[in-house]
Amino acid sequence: MLAAIENLPEELDDQVDQVYINFPWGSLLKGVVLVDAIAWKNIKKITKPGAFIDLVFGYNIACDRKEVERLGLPQVLDEAYVKNIMLPKIFEYGFACLKLEALSVCDLKNYPTSWAKTLSFGYKRLYFCLQLQKV
Q1: Crossing angle, helix 26-33 and helix 37-46, to 10 degrees?
Q2: What is the mean pLDDT of each run of 10 residues along the chain (135 residues)?
Q3: CATH of 15-134, one of 3.40.50.2300, 3.50.50.60, 3.40.50.150, 3.40.630.30
Q4: pTM score > 0.85 for this model?
């Protein structure tokens, strides 16, 4: 089933044990990084108690400037932003952080998607891996 995060079908409500968000872009990246209410309420709505959310995301202002500006994303996406801005807001939506780690180029090369491997050879971007659990 394909759907935008802003408009998930009701059939998914309380049905999901695991959500993978790998290398989001556009409105999904905006929803994740800015901890948009609609995005996170919808993630909460579709997940069962105890569900896991695995999120791998990042960008580089030097090579992604137009998209960052278009989406109104922070100029700097670093560990401090994730810990001090994103996570407190994510906690408010009922998710606990089980893991936060920065991914290296080597991690990207070994990540199980072809897109991750492609990104590992492009511009240097800082990517983060967050594992969350619905409480």
Answers
A1: 90
A2: 86 95 94 96 97 94 91 95 98 98 83 78 82 98
A3: 3.40.50.150
A4: yes
